[in-house]
Amino acid sequence: MRKLLAVALTILTLLGFGQSVLLNDVDAAAKLAKIEQKKLAIVFTTQTCPYCTKLKNETLTDRTVKELIMANFIFVEAMYDTSRSTEAFGQKMTYAQLFNYFGVSGVPTIWFFSSEASPLVYLPGYAPASTFAQVLRYVYQEIKEDFSQYAKKKDSFVGERKLLRVTEEEASFVLQNDPNALLVDSVVEKPDVFKVYLTKDEQTANKLNELGVFRVLLITD
Length: 221
Fold this sequence. Notes:
Helix content is 39%, strand content 23%.
């Protein structure tokens, strides 16, 4: 029985890890980044871009890259589209206009933002997983050193743990829009530290935080 349970848990873990880290709604992503206090990243792509496909299928499926994203970022894809729109940056724009707004002339391009959607820095072009993982650590920690110098060093940063208080409305939004989010009413014995855990129980929230979960959201009235 224990062996069957272990196999089942392994399968569930693999299935969860196989999920894409890319959302497809810029407005929802911006709101999630604010609630979860993660940095926002917009991946600008087109349907005919081979390196966009390579980025999504190879770089963004790398285990280290996915863990860094799940712990610290909300990633969203903005494919060139004149029919979809966003108001995440103070005015209504189509996704196509968003390209012009951020001066995107080649794809893929990734713009990084603070949790409040303030622009930080952008990465033009494709990057392999090893380089991309360094970029994620560099951006999240807002390191001021030149990246070429930083990249020569070893950095074991994985993420920043935060226990945040959220409203019922915010919790509902997270559960509806973040596929990485879970609602629990008691402590998970071996939590996936890269998931976003929501709970109404303060003791459970504190314990999950102690166990290393990077984002714990305590639902308050």
